Amino acid sequence: MIFRISLILIFLIANSAISSAQNKGCVQDLEALLEILQDTPSYKDQIKGKDEKGYLSFFEKLKTEASEATTKGECFLVLGNLKSPINDNHLFLSEIPEIKIDSETLQDSVFMEKYKESDAFKNFSRVNTDLDSLELKLEELPENSTEGIYYYGDYAKIGLFQLTGGNYIAAILETKLPHWERGQIAFIAKEFDQGKWNIWNYSLITKSLQFISSDRIVDGTFNRIAWSKFPEREDFTQVSPEKPVFEFNQLNENVQYLRLGTFATSTQKLKESQEFFDQIQDSISAPNLIVDLRNNGGGGSKSSRKFYQMLRKEVKNRKVWVLINQKTASNAEQFTIQIAKFDNLKTLGKTTAGILAYGNNYGKSETLPSGRFQIYITDMADSGGYLAYESIGVQPEIPLEITSDWVDQTLQIIAASEK
Fold first, then answer.
1. pLDDT tens, residue by residue, 136-170
2. What separation, in Å, do the N-terminal and C-terminal C-alpha atoms of the chain show?
3. Torsion, CA 127, CA 213, CA 87, CA 360, rounded to 10
4. Angle at 67 between CA 64 and CA 72, to 5 degrees
5. Sign of torsion over alpha carbons 250, 252, 256, 260
6. Pick from 205, 258, 283, 321: CA 20 to 30 A from residue 163's CA?
7. Which interval of the chain is the signal sequence (predicted)?
């Protein structure tokens, strides 16, 4: 089902029509972004020789598009396209919001009234189509269709449909959030490789633009932006938010469970990690150990190294079963690749996030000349040879089903392996 609406038309209906001076500013932003990208380790690794010649030719084409951009949204679309060929998912391009919206202001009725009277709200990007008809057509599509109805918990409902030219657009159909309105655009998505999506996303809370590269749809859910076709279905791939970040349990006489939910390296998190390690390092005794890395968004080797060294010792005395999922990312993915080399260790679950080759030592961002956009910069080289996994992720040796508890499934696999 393709709606004959062009992407340009949607942005012409969008917010913040810009003046000729601001139009020039989009070109300046694009030129500044190129300079910033050229200084990153990922650019230097990937864009060279003939590839660089082609990339710079692509830049000139985008420069023309930037000079013709008439809205903030169009400009951001061009900037995202410049970043897209660089396979580095730690690089993060985003809008600097003109109006600060957060969890506090959402509760402020006076603020919300003023916001709804503002040009920012009235001119916010929206679709110009019959939403009732759209919703009926999308509801008829099969579950495995990319197009369809998606939900963000019970906060909002969108209709995702394909545009002329192959891009997809998500329009708000229902929402409990006071700063959104039916028909406004939640995100635009473009499949640039089979199963990989670049997404120009509006943050559900701040309503500011974000460029999300290489997202994937996993079992009906966009992995990084979290919109799902099945909000009421229990997701056994995930770990409950109430579950402790670090946990150690005896599941039965033959199996112990070790939860490593973060490798964050802030002073406080390193302290918690070390205290947990000191408590459990001499407690592993069962013939089987389940290590749960689900939803571990990474951190650094300052945290993970001690657990790596511990597991390198433990695999000599017992079988180790490592749970990974689509939210296992960054240093947790690097950790998985390294421990997967051990004998007596198996990985189980779902393919990881694919955000691991590069990183940022100092959390530095740079603002583009217009002051409207910023980019979070990567300054850490791919020292471990992880580029082959970027945007692809680490595949488990044993896939697990989404329909039942993963620890229970692993216990069944362990039991079968001992027969």
1. 999 999 999 999 999 999 999 999 999 987 899 99
2. 51
3. 130
4. 125
5. negative
6. 205
7. 1-21
- The one-letter amino acid code at 399 reads P
Query: Domain map of the chain by residue range?
Result: 2-222, 246-356+393-417
Name the pTM for this structure.
Answer: 0.91
Contacts of 81 (CB under 8 A, 6+ apart): 62, 65
3 has which bridge partners?
A: 163
CA–CA separation, 166 and 350 (whole Å): 28
- Token pair for residue 366? 């740079």
Contact 256, 230 (CB under 8 A): no
Question: What proportion of the chain, given as a percentage, has pLDDT over 70?
Answer: 95
pLDDT at 5: 46
**Fold of the CATH domain 246-356+393-417:** 2-enoyl-CoA Hydratase; Chain A, domain 1 (3.90.226)
> Facing residues of 196 across strands?
193
Phi/psi at 227 (nearest 5 deg)? -75, 135
Tell me the CB-side half-sphere exposure of residue 386, using CA atoms within 13 A.
Answer: 30
Q: What is the pLDDT of residues 195-208, one digit of tens each?
A: 999 999 999 999 99
